[in-house]
Amino acid sequence: MTAPRVAHLVFDLIRGGTEGQCARVAMGLAGRGTLQRVGVFRRRGFFLEAVEAACGPVREVAIRHLARPGTLREIARLAAWLRQEQIDVLHAWDADAAIFGQFAARRAGVKFVTSRRDLGQIYPSWKMALMRRADRQADRVVANAEAVQTHFIAQGLPADKIVVLPNLLDLEERDRLAAAPFSRAAELPAGRRLVVVNRLDPEKNVGLLIDALPLVRSDFSDAVLVVAGAGRELPVLRAQAAARGVAAAVYFLGETHEVPALLPLCEIGALVPSRNEGLSNTILEYMAAGLPVLATDCGGNRELVRDGATGRLVPATTDAAAVARAWTSLLRDRAGAAAMGQTGRAHVERNHARETVLDRFADLYAQTAV
Question: Is 47 within a domain?
């Protein structure tokens, strides 16, 4: 059977979680000789040039608002592009792609796949309603974690429609980038570093680590926190570190594209969201780097972080004292923490390697196109 022609629709091509996964799947399958096309709502991002080199010109869908007069015209143009490219399957990777892609797919007469890559707990009610409609219209729904699958089945999504396909990590590329020196190494505070890599949004709950740090430093005075990421919470977190008396032990690195090179300079990776988490690319990066992981039991985190095996898992509703206990336990037992890191790396190699995950996406598209 000829491989189906697939179009991928995503907001843009920044290096973020969903956008990066979309880009890597499209480029990976194109590299196998199958036609992959990509459409975006904003023609920008880290992966733009690479995607165009692998998949051909990236089409911009000029929809800027749900209720603007040009929206229906752009949906019609998107449908016409799908027909022109003889697309068999349209995969909508995020919320906006699902909301508008459902109408274009139906108009073009192509199969339609949506994605659920988090628990949807940060979206307004009107967007959730439109996303649920898209899932009902879809031929298949891709979740990236069993927790996400379970969440949406409980909300009424038919179990036979949703399939779990994990995030991929290109280990060869990651290891090559990790071997390079981190360009800002001299800026990092000395000490035993715990690093958190995520957007600085409220649901990521980075303040919990700042609250825990003074308790950790009462046992390990050289414990420091490196925060890699940017976002609206940055001023709040800076003020919180100062109020807790640990401003000198918290380093706000800002956004960095050198995460693989940064991680070998740290001892522990952390991700402590309070809600909305799917399957974390950040945790996969930590595990691939051989770091033990400190995480909250939120969304798909427990599918990666097994308490005592690949790191320490604390409840999503935990407090600073519980986080501090988990953190100090990893600092105290260096041999045990190293073994957790090795177990985590092996898990990524088995379950999230590039070719393994690409095989599963190729199978999904082939089955959907029938």
Answer: yes
Question: Which CATH number do you get for residue 357?
Answer: 3.40.50.2000
Domain limits for position 79: 6-168+353-369
Together in a domain, 132 and 183: no
- Give the end-to-end CA distance of the chain in Å, rounded to a whole number: 10
Residues 137 and 86 in one domain: yes
CA-CA distance, 204 to 200, in Å (whole number)?
A: 7
Same domain assignment for residues 152 and 202:
no
pLDDT digits (tens), the chain, 370 positions? 589 999 999 999 998 789 999 999 999 999 999 999 999 999 999 999 999 999 999 999 999 888 787 899 999 999 999 999 999 999 999 999 999 999 999 999 999 999 999 999 989 999 999 999 999 999 999 999 999 999 999 999 999 999 999 999 999 999 999 999 999 999 999 999 999 999 999 999 999 999 999 999 999 999 999 999 999 999 999 999 999 999 999 999 999 999 999 999 999 999 999 999 999 999 999 999 999 999 999 999 999 999 999 999 999 999 999 999 999 999 999 999 999 999 999 999 999 999 999 999 999 999 999 9
Nearest to 199 by CA among 280, 313, 315: 280
Residues 109 and 194 in one domain: no
Q: Tell me which residue of 167, 282, 170 sits closest to 227, measured CA to CA.
A: 282
Is 0.85 surpassed by the pTM of this model? Answer: yes
**Distance between CA atoms of residues 352 and 144, nearest Å:** 11
State residue 200 phi and psi, 5-degree precision: -95, 70
- Residue 111 falls within a domain, yes or no? yes
Q: Does some domain include residue 1? A: no
